[in-house]
Amino acid sequence: LPETLRMDCNRLLTFRNDWQDITIMATLLILFRQASGPRCTASHQSEMKATLWVLLNDTDTSLSHIVLEVARTAGTIRGKAFSDAEVSSLSGLVEKTLSPESRLYGLVWSRIGEHLRSWLVSTLDRTLLARHGLTELETEMRDLSERLGKLGEFNRATYFEIYRQLYEESRALN
């Protein structure tokens, strides 16, 4: 890692954490939509997103709080409260899915990365965003992409000559 980027380590770590937060939210919203069934609307998702952000940003919130809120709201939407067995099953599913080793978590992480790259080099593909089930997180992804772009542009403008020289020196060694 070039020393110039090491100076931005805290900022890069913040970007990574924001990407992770978006991934967690997207994954929870997928599970919420599944738990709610076909009656779940965009409005329900938006409300759940707002509630989940509050819960996720509260240091006293546990995974149990999140699961219980998802189950309560999903039960209201589907018209039938979750049984204890369903809540237990949902809890296991949430815990397993939020693990970085989870295939779904990895898929959502990489899809968000695709959209961030897309925004950095061109424009947003809303059709693909919707197909990936990420429309509800467009604002957060756009914000992160803009901040990444500003950092990249600043580093390019400030350190381009240094990077170019490093690149040429490394090519000469090979």
Protein described:
With 174 residues, the chain is mostly helical. The protein has 8 helices and no strands. It is elongated. The mean pLDDT is 90.
What is the percent of helical residues? Answer: over 70%
Count of alpha/pi helices: 8
**Class computed from helices, strands and strand pairing:** mainly alpha
Mean residue pLDDT: 90
N-to-C series of helices and strands: HHHHHHHH
Sequence-ordered SSE layout with sheet pairings:
Layout: H1 3-6, H2 9-36, H3 42-56, H4 63-78, H5 84-97, H6 103-121, H7 126-131, H8 138-173
What's this entry about, in short?
The protein is mainly alpha-helical. Helix content is 79%, strand content 0%.
Please describe the structure with a list of short key phrases separated by commas or semicolons:
174 residues; mainly alpha; 8 helices
